[in-house]
Write a structure and sequence with these properties.
Layout lengths: L35 H6 L50 E9 L5 H18 L25 E6 L1 H6 L30 E7 L2 H14 L4 E10 L32 H5 L14 E10 L1 H5 L3 H8 L36 H5 L10 E2 L2 E7 L5 E11 L6 H8 L9 E11 L11 H5 L1
Helix pairs in contact: 2-4
Length: 435
């Protein structure tokens, strides 16, 4: 998929499953001590919440924190929408899919989601619990929450496994087959999906391990992928991130300040099914970058393929990084300033009847592949109110026709329904599982 320019209310819930339904206690699941100085003086660090989306415009934080305050950054778990969608992508990320074990039903799935929600509620808290940790392995001791977010979604197969086919969203239809895909089914789809992000690698790893242990007896890991981004404070000022091709990536992302942002990214309160109100749909793609081939191009050739200058991200039609792209601009020789097969031309909403999505990706590098080239690229996550009007038309346009597609290989894919957020004492998916 694109690597540069692609573009809540909750109804009343029935009481949740009894705590004794969970095989492992959840009270005080885990907390880390805040960083030494940050615990005392850094409480005013990066406090993120419902308004944190304003920082998404360029995919970076508005005010880079000093390293001593990174640990104190806190994103609340509870809210009208799940965390990990509008917040800037963190320095470390894990994507994982789980399949329910044989014999698991709606009741056991509800108990699992309650355990997971209780665990994340503790791990993302800004203070320390007064009770011992049930799943704590002390990996993240001495660290604060470090902007930790955990986001949960349901795959299409989940509904048949739990007898909830009547609640299957129409927007969760299987993604079409794209001719250039090379998908590995073992690393695609899944009953449940989890996205973990944090600005500290140990905090992110610890959260993933807690979820894996809490799933014992109810679900097993189907696949897991690990990613990274630039560390907060690593640049002189907030900058749009670069991908592993060296390109500035995320300039033309939809912004929460856009008048139509919510309409494009989140399911409306009047949407169907009603348990998805305030939620979103996540398209997940593992996109390998053919870096050895890409690196053989000159910088000028790379810029022509993308449609932007590599040095500063400015469109080849002129201006600076944030200057709107002029698709009709021509050079003195009457050639198009933005080539006909340039990535930003084919990915632009103007080229796709206004289709857009919010991209929130992590880079990955898993060593050298069996072909002797880097197994590296992008863990692409695209958010939209309906993937059939967001991701699908854009990817159809890009597939094969995009000059950049010659240097990309889509190796895994998934589509997940991500419900809205939770209130105090609720768990993710409660309206679905108890409706």
């Amino acid at each position: 998929m694109s690597t540069t320019d692609k573009a809540a209310g909750r109804g009343a819930s029935a009481p949740g499953p009894r705590q004794e339904d969970a095989p492992t206690p959840t009270a005080g699941v885990t907390r880390r001590r805040l960083l030494g100085t940050a615990g005392a003086a850094g409480a005013v660090g990066l406090v993120a919440g419902g308004g944190a989306g304003a920082a998404v415009a360029a995919g970076t934080r508005d005010d880079p924190a000093a390293l001593t305050t990174v640990g104190s950054a806190h994103v609340p778990f509870e809210g009208a929408r799940q965390a990990g969608i509008v917040q800037p992508a963190q320095a470390c990320g894990h994507l994982a899919a789980f399949d329910l074990v044989a014999g698991a039903d709606r009741r056991s799935a509800a108990a699992l989601l309650r355990r997971w929600s209780d665990a994340v509620r503790e791990m993302t808290a800004s203070g320390r619990p007064s009770t011992p940790a049930a799943y704590d392995d002390q990996v993240a001791d001495d660290a604060g929450p470090s902007s930790l977010t955990v986001t949960f979604g349901f795959g299409r197969s989940f509904f048949g496994r739990t007898g909830l086919n009547a609640e299957l969203p129409a927007a969760l239809a299987p993604l079409p087959d794209f001719p250039s895909d090379h998908l590995d089914p073992k690393r695609s789809n899944g009953d449940l999906w989890v996205q973990v992000g944090a600005d500290d690698a140990l905090v992110a790893f610890h959260a993933l391990r807690v979820l894996q242990k809490a799933a014992a007896g109810a679900a097993t890991v189907r696949w897991q992928m690990n990613g990274f981004n630039r560390t907060p404070g690593a640049t002189d000022r907030p900058r749009t991130a670069r991908n592993l091709m060296g390109q500035i990536d995320g300039t033309n992302n939809p912004k929460p300040s856009d008048a139509d942002f919510d309409r494009r990214i989140f399911v409306p309160a009047s949407g169907s099914p009603d348990w998805m109100a305030g939620g979103s749909y996540a398209v997940v793609r593992r996109i390998r970058m053919l870096l050895d081939s890409w690196d053989h191009l000159s910088v000028a050739e790379q810029e022509r393929v993308v449609g932007r200058r590599k040095s500063d991200g400015a469109p080849l039609s002129g201006g600076v990084e944030t200057t709107p792209v002029q698709l009709d601009k021509v050079n003195p020789d009457r050639s198009l300033a933005i080539a006909g097969d340039a990535h930003i031309r084919l990915a632009a909403p103007a080229s796709n009847s206004g289709a857009a999505m919010l991209r929130r990706a992590f880079s990955y590098h898993d060593g050298i592949g069996t072909d002797g080239t880097p197994d590296a690229g992008l863990l692409f996550v695209a958010w939209q109110a309906d993937p059939m009007t967001g991701f699908v038309p854009v990817q159809r346009k890009l597939d094969g026709a995009d000059g950049l597609s010659r240097f990309l290989r889509h190796e895994a894919s998934g589509l997940f329904a991500v419900p809205g957020g939770v209130g105090k004492g609720e768990y993710v998916g409660q309206r679905l599982l108890e409706g």
